Amino acid sequence: MPRCSTRYRNNRRENPLIRVGIIGTGFIADSHAGAIAGSPRTTLTAIHDRAPEAAQRFISRWGGVAMPDAEALISSAEVDAVIVCTPNDTHVDLAMTACRHGKHVLIEKPIALEPVSARAMTDAFAAAGLVFQAGHVHRHTDLGRAVQDCITSGALGTIEAIRIAITGGWIWPGWQGWVLDHQRSGGHALHNGVHLYDLASWWLHSPIVKASALGQQLTSGRLAIDDALVATLVAESGASAICEISRGERPRATALFEVVVQGSAGSLVRAWSSDGGVAFTDEASGPLAAAFNDPFRLQLDSWADAILDGRPVNPSLSDAVQSVAVADAVTRAARSNRVEEVAR
């Protein structure tokens, strides 16, 4: 469990707000900035982006002061905690710099490109007594929490199998930039798949130990990474999860978000983007209502609770590392056409 920062524990009245700096102003940064603006416990004080004009556009909307580089933002006396919204291959270096400067971090998924560096990074934060929040925002969606609550209630009995599908046409008219570079993004199995592996392990209440996968380049042979993937995961409990991720469906407006959970006493079916779902048992069926909360705000609240009150983050550090390890096993399985073990 992360330890509460001594500064906040002893000086809550003098420091009522967590002063946050954001590195990287791509589209996901707007979601984080909106969450900060809506929270009574955080304020945005500093921004850095490698493109100064992008930083200024961001500041004109959300406030804060532009910093000349990431090191300047992290070391600033006006920054208590850092949100990292940069390409995946930069995450570890930026997080470790923040750790050396005694700053808490919320880092976008995936936290690292491979499990060894992910584990070393989270171990460093734990040893320093700093809060490390992995940006697995789907845990904080109404869907994610409703499914978890239903499973935890025991209404479905022992969970035996899960299917999670996220398929759509987001690739069109064409992917661009660092996401297409496997060396920078980690590829489709990591960059896009990591959300699903994390949900599968969380809902199964058991770590994933084996993976098999089929990766395909369906939309364009020039892509350097797969745009479609089906992974079968096996948990330590013996339960399984099928994760389907595609970005190249036609037409571009196509979007399917679906969850199926099968238990010994019942099943749950829910479309991700709907306002509800249904849980079935032998005795009855019932709806799962949605509350339409902002998942980025709930994720920020989890981070702030850990910083100010010493509460555990969600996901835990071990869960954050495991999602990267599962992605690594899925990537290896797609290449080898064999079942691969997940690194422990």
From TrEMBL:
Signal peptide: none annotated. GO terms for molecular function: nucleotide binding; oxidoreductase activity. Keywords: Oxidoreductase. Residues 149-338 form the Gfo/Idh/MocA-like oxidoreductase C-terminal domain. Residues 18-136 form the Gfo/Idh/MocA-like oxidoreductase N-terminal domain. The keyword Oxidoreductase applies. Transmembrane segments: none annotated. It comes from the Bacteria. Gene3D superfamilies: Dihydrodipicolinate Reductase, domain 2, NAD(P)-binding Rossmann-like Domain. It holds the Pfam family GFO_IDH_MocA_C. PANTHER family: BCDNA.GH03377. Belongs to the Gfo/Idh/MocA family. This is Gfo/Idh/MocA family oxidoreductase. The lineage of its organism: Bacteria, Bacillati, Actinomycetota, Actinomycetes, Propionibacteriales.
